[in-house]
Amino acid sequence: MKKKSSVDFESCITAAVLVIMLTLVFLGVVSRYALHFSFSFTEELVCALFVLLGTVGSALACKRRSLYTLDLLTGAMKPKMQTIFSIITTTLTLLAALFLFWTSFSMISTQFKLKSLTVALRVPAWTYTTAVPFGIGLVIIRCIQNILQDVRKLKKLKEEGEAQ
């Protein structure tokens, strides 16, 4: 039997982004205090990477079912009701993610039309904004996976209840 690995796509991305962010911040601090020169582009890149880290981190939390918990409420429920509650809350998360996904494309479109450039590197602003639909897209995928798992679990619990 193959052991399931805890390393996944989202974990790799969040780890890489965090290392890059820490390196950029470290270089910025060293340049400011040791060289008396500020690399302004590091702040810009770190802000852009922070958005990516937040959205992909949300997808990772969704996959691990740790976005939010109401243990006080769900702990008192029977397994069937816990699963129903999970389907409802995950569906609400999915709806919010779909809304953010849709509005992020509107924001990218506006930035593209206005030909907005970033302050330090003078690159198109929409290139940084693409991190939002990328990360939120992963959240949507993980929510759908969780809902499908819960529906299968609910069917299994129903079958077990009928068999008893």
From TrEMBL:
Subcellular compartments: Cell inner membrane
Ranges for domain Tripartite ATP-independent periplasmic transporters DctQ component: 21-152
InterPro entries to which the protein is assigned, alphabetical: DctQ, TRAP_DctQ
Principal subcellular localisation of the protein: membrane
Membrane protein topology class: Multi-pass membrane protein
Superkingdom of this protein's organism: Bacteria
A family per Pfam: DctQ
Residues annotated as transmembrane: 12-35, 41-62, 83-105, 125-148
Family: Belongs to the TRAP transporter small permease family.
Xref: PANTHER family: 2,3-DIKETO-L-GULONATE TRAP TRANSPORTER SMALL PERMEASE PROTEIN YIAM
UniProt name for this protein: TRAP transporter small permease
Top-level taxonomy: Bacteria, Bacillati, Bacillota, Clostridia, Eubacteriales
